[in-house]
UniProtKB/TrEMBL annotation:
The entry's keywords: Membrane, Signal, Transmembrane, Transmembrane helix, Transport
Superkingdom, natural source: Eukaryota
Entry membrane topology: Multi-pass membrane protein
Transmembrane segments: 83-107, 119-141, 148-168, 174-194
Entry's localization field: Membrane
Protein known as: Major facilitator superfamily (MFS) profile domain-containing protein
PROSITE patterns to which the protein is assigned, alphabetical: MFS
Pfam families, per the entry: Sugar_tr
Primary location group: membrane
Alphabetical list of InterPro entries matching this protein: MFS_dom, MFS_sugar_transport-like, MFS_Sugar_Transporters, MFS_trans_sf, Sugar/inositol_transpt
């Protein structure tokens, strides 16, 4: 199945069009207006809305050129704090432990007392809970704001992880049930907060002139820490004598 999805992505990349903003930024205006017309004017390059969008993007591109050089060095010199926030948001989204649960959920449930197929079943139910938790941000992100969502999610995740550890330590008859409940709460807390918001935040705080560079660095940070968590978790579990 993964090979099929990868093949579909590869085939899709052959027909995807370039970003109109990038085309206008590289002075390929004719290609840019065609893409914009396809998006806004059903292919009509004389469509008023398409022409207005073209002028607005081109004007912004020209204004940004007046800001001067847009190299990585200049980006860090002028916007170092913003880039650091963008990168750290993605890094912390991994270091909060979500992929320990995502990658090793059956082992976590087995350590709590769920055995064999029951552990796999709980993993599936946990995945459904995770998916459902990503729906509320569609409606809350602009009502609550980014910061309250991140803070509330962090608090819920910290409390849930602490209680998971405590119940596993107790190792009593109701430990399996409590662990499943708080793993689901933890995943749901991540799903509505630190899951989506770190992807939204970097493009919002970075100016257009360096947005592509800053966003790419934040994304690279996410996957770098994703790899680190995935590789180090088994080693650390062995080191701390994880059951």
């Amino acid at each position: 199945m993964q090979c099929i999805m990868g093949a579909l992505l590869g085939l899709g990349s052959l027909i995807i069009v370039e970003s109109p903003r990038w085309l206008l930024d590289t002075d390929r205006d004719e290609e840019g207006i065609i893409v914009i017309a396809d998006l806004y004017g059903k292919g009509d390059i004389h469509n008023p809305k398409a022409r207005e969008e073209f002028r607005e993007i081109k004007m912004n591109v020209l204004l940004q050129r007046q800001e001067g050089e847009r190299s990585y060095a200049e980006m860090f010199r002028r916007y170092g704090t913003r880039v650091f926030i963008a990168m750290s948001a993605q890094g912390l989204a991994q270091l909060n432990g979500i992929n320990v649960i995502s990658y090793y959920a059956p082992y976590v449930f087995e350590s709590a007392g769920w055995v064999g197929q029951d552990a796999v079943l709980m993993t599936g139910i946990n995945g459904i809970t995770y998916f459902l938790s990503t729906i509320p941000p569609w409606y809350l992100v602009d009502r609550w704001g980014r910061r309250p969502i991140l803070l509330s999610g962090a608090i819920l995740m910290a409390v849930s992880l602490s209680l998971i550890s405590y119940f596993i330590y107790l190792d009593v008859s109701w430990t399996p049930t409590c662990v499943v409940i708080f793993v689901m709460i933890y995943n749901a807390a991540f799903g509505y907060s630190w899951g989506p918001i770190p992807w939204l935040y970097p493009p919002e705080i970075l100016p257009l002139s360096i947005r592509s560079k800053g966003a790419s660095l934040s994304t690279a940070t996410n996957w770098a820490f994703n790899w680190l968590v995935g590789e180090m978790t088994p080693i650390l579990q062995e080191w701390i004598k994880w059951r």
